[in-house]
Amino acid sequence: MTYDRLYVAFLIYFNRDQDYFECHEVMEELWLALDKDPLYKGLLQVAVGLYHFRNGNVTGGWKMMDSAVRRLTPYPPDSLGINLGKLLRETEAYAVALASYDQSPFPYYDLKIEIQDANLLKLFEKMSPEISPNVPQRRGPQRGAKHELRMQGKTK
Fold this sequence. Notes:
Layout: H1 5-17, H2 20-33, H3 38-54, H4 58-72, H5 84-99, H6 118-127, H7 145-151
């Protein structure tokens, strides 16, 4: 199987950097290019769920994780060269825990996507040095200078 470079970049940002904002950026681009394939949307939602929960948005994290579980469930456990079955189980457990977070709070923790396909792992290792980590990581959309001036009351 051949893998899109954006997919590999998603895995690098997810596993190496835990940069879930950047995961969203690259996976959304791929998802749109692939006619909104639900499998890729599910992977995107796992990253967004982690992003939200890490930033204190429990409800947003739960909504994304719950939706990701529904999107990923129909696919074989070894889809896209990864252990999708394991990721699905871990995402489902996260969603269940987030649903009862008010009664049973727990600390944030990252997930890892286990790469099973040797060719995908080689691509991951080859591309990893080519993709610089974002330091510091972006914590939200970046707005332009015009927006900043407007916020300071200098333009309309």
